Amino acid sequence: MTDRAIDVYGLTKRFGDRVAVDNVAIRMPRGQVWGFLGPNGSGKTTTIRMLCGLLKPDAGQGTCLGYDLIADSGQIKRQVGYMTQKFSFWEDLSIRENLEFVARLYELRNIKQVIDQTLETLGLSSRQKQLAGTLSGGWKQRLALAACTLHNPAMLLLDEPTAGVDPQARRDFWDQIHRLAAEGLTVLVSTHYMDEAERCDEIVYIAYGQLMTQGPVSRIIDESGLHTWVAEGPGVRALADRLRGRDGAEHVAYFGSALHVSDSNAAKLDALIASEGGAGTQWRRERPSLEDVFIDLMSQAQDKS
Ligand SMILES: Nc1ncnc2c1ncn2[C@@H]1O[C@H](COP(=O)(O)OP(=O)(O)OP(=O)(O)O)[C@@H](O)[C@H]1O
Questions:
Q1: What parts of the sequence cross the membrane (predicted)?
Q2: How far apart are CA 17 and CA 94, in angstroms?
Q3: Domain range holding 242?
Q4: Which residue, by CA, sits nearest to atom 30 of ligand 1?
Q5: C or N: which end of the chain has fewer Cβ atoms within 10 Å?
Q6: pLDDT by residue (tens digit) across 154-169?
Q7: Would you state the pLDDT for residue 86?
Q8: 183 CA from centroid of ligand 1 (Å)
Q9: Tens digit of pLDDT for each residue in 284-304?
């Protein structure tokens, strides 16, 4: 058994003239939780669909769970749990009835036992009789997770599973993900939330179909070559307008009420900040946040495309 859950390279998918995924390579060990990030339309869903055997790549090759991406797509589908962005249920059926339906699709044996176990693991037992249509977003998402883990997959591919659910439900969901990973499951999860990226062993960042960076969050920040100053105080709004487009301020972005000013040239950035030490603004130098780095990566990708 290969120790890599995902080992693909040259992965490419075109839709007409548009290259949705461009020569992407991912090598992911088993048993880890990786985040898959990138701007809207950058190719995350398309990549995930190729990885789980639902979409045939135009070019590229490799393996998923040791199975050939193209020749063994049937095997991959059976061993992967895929949670789509817009999961759907039978709204007039209960949680338990929905899971029974999915279990029959997978032709599982011991359906009662498997469902009991899944309900228990995901904290759904007490709600098993509730109609799916009456569940809140967080519980629906938990039901979707139950449905995609029912057949005991070796890997989960989760496509923005927490979009639109409240912070507590997102936190609970991530606790579940780490619990499943502790039992040996490999999880690749796409997200737009930075706090979720920080909970992953590693992240893959893709923009305009191209893989821009991959690694643990701290390494990605360290290797970004970016320098950041943060300004706070009543003067920041006027400051933002003054700084945008100036040499030494490649990126100017609000984080709450604070303004982050970043540049890859530390000397230019420092000189600019020194010239802007006006009243009503407090400055401090900070390690760039992951979001600062992503903004930078996105603009690099824009320049290339
Ligand atoms: N079936 C399709 N036919 C034509 N174009 C498609 C199809 N699926 C995706 N695309 C295009 O491919 C590109 C990548 O889309 P994809 O859904 O993979 O991005 P994404 O990173 O998952 O985006 P989001 O974060 O918004 O979910 C987009 O330009 C999209 O419009």
A1: none
A2: 44
A3: 227-287
A4: 41
A5: N
A6: 999 999 999 888 899 8
A7: 80
A8: 32
A9: 999 999 999 999 998 887 766
56 token code pair: 């045939």
How many domains in the chain?
2
Across residues 220-231, what is the average pLDDT? 95
* CATH number of the domain to which 118 belongs: 3.40.50.300
**What's the pTM?**
0.92
Is the domain of 158 the same as that of 55?
A: yes
Q: Per residue in 119-145, pLDDT tens?
A: 998 889 999 999 999 998 889 999 999
Does one domain contain both 142 and 178? yes
Go through 145-170 and write b for each residue having 16 or more CB atoms within 10 A of its CB, e for each that does not: bbbbbbbebbbbbbbbbbeebeeebb
With a 6 Å cutoff on the Cβ, whether 44 touches ligand 1 is: yes
Asked whether residue 154 falls in the same domain as residue 264, the answer is no
Confidence of residue 41 (pLDDT cuts 50, 70, 90): very high
DSSP classification of residue 207: E
Does one domain contain both 133 and 245?
Answer: no
Per DSSP bridges, beta strands 258-263 and 251-255 are antiparallel
Could you tell which of 19, 37, 40, 46 is best to mutate to test the pocket of ligand 1, judged by most ligand atoms within 8 Å of the CB?
A: 46
Does the beta carbon of 38 lie inside 6 Å of ligand 1?
yes
Complex confidence, ipTM: 0.97
- Determine the average pLDDT of the residues in 206-225: 95
CA nearest neighbour of 28 among 199, 186, 156, 173? 186
- CATH number for position 283: 3.30.70
Q: Are 216 and 271 found together in one domain?
A: no
Residues 232 and 90 in one domain: no
How many whole angstroms from 47 Cα to the centroid of ligand 1? 9
Read off the tokens for 218.
């701290």
The answer to whether residues 214 and 266 belong to one domain is no
Of the candidates 220, 244, 263, which is a domain's last residue?
220
Ligand 1 pocket, residue 15 CB under 6 Å: yes
